[in-house]
Amino acid sequence: MSSLVPYSTPELLFTFRDGLHRMNTTVSDRTAENCTIPSSVDQQMYPAAYSLFFIVSFPANLLSLFAAWQLMKKGNNIAVYLVFLSISDLLYTITLPVWIEQALRRDVHGGLCSTVNLIMYNSFYVGSGLLCCISVDRYLAVVYPLHFHWVREVCTAVALSTAVWILEVVAHILLLFHMGALRASLCLYEQHIPIKTGAAHVFLVRIIVGFLIPVVIMSFCFQQIMHSLQQSVSILEEERRRVCLLLLLLLLTYIASFLPYQTVMLLRATLEPGSCEWAQLLRGAYLVTSAMTTLNSTLDPIIYCLINTSARTEIKIFVEKGRKVFMREDEERPNSSIEIRAIC
Length: 344
Hints:
There is one protein chain. This protein is mainly α. Helices cover 81% and strands 0% of the residues. Helix 2 packs antiparallel against helix 4, helix 2 packs parallel to helix 10 and helix 5 runs antiparallel to helix 6. This is G-protein coupled receptor 4. GO terms for molecular function: G protein-coupled receptor activity. Belongs to the G-protein coupled receptor 1 family.
């Protein structure tokens, strides 16, 4: 009789348990694949927020780029990093109208979405790399003023800034291609919701390399600069205050802009893969904190132009030249009208 039974009782239990596990996995996968998350957060918030950011950020970054360019031509190495930073922020600012169109559920060409995705992530991490360069440069200049002169040369700054740009662009082309974002038809949303395990691993790498490490570097440099300035008697109090204020505001702006976003991305990377429920819970926070990151591109040029005396001087010279041109044109217009009347 036993020969007619193909499995013993333990084997039957194992087979049943294995089949039940595979059935649950299949149902879970199908649920994840069919996960739809209706959200109007972006549609309600993005058009107004991004329009405001664009109105403020575009002229601010243009002014910052102009001032930094003028100072770079005079041999200011910090201005080199700010030129590259302003270009990165300007490129991101120019893409904001595309985000607005996408939030309003209007059609955006897939190729444009790929470019926008690359510019956005490139702006995030190029900015952190360049801010690290600025912090390390000031750290070496203040703490070791008699050493590392070659690091503080314009040529070195150009080489480092170019290297940061190339590294970030190549890295994100590879990462976005791996995630499928370069073939995306939607700019604002991931193609796979909830995210897959591979994308979660990419998020974790970005959090560590693109946020935590830069924050540690900038915080260390700031602390060492503060300590050195307090002990130095050769640096004027006003100069000391200005250096500390600039670095502190840049650091705080960076943390305030990206900490909420990176926190949400950490939660998504650890909780969301394969879970439609977590994807639904975290979706609104992801959309809001994504918009908050634009604050960094908006506030950085304002901080630089307000605190840096040389930048303010260059902007004042530019404004004064523009005012003289307009005044000259206004003075010539009445003379032209008088000549026309005399001819008539």
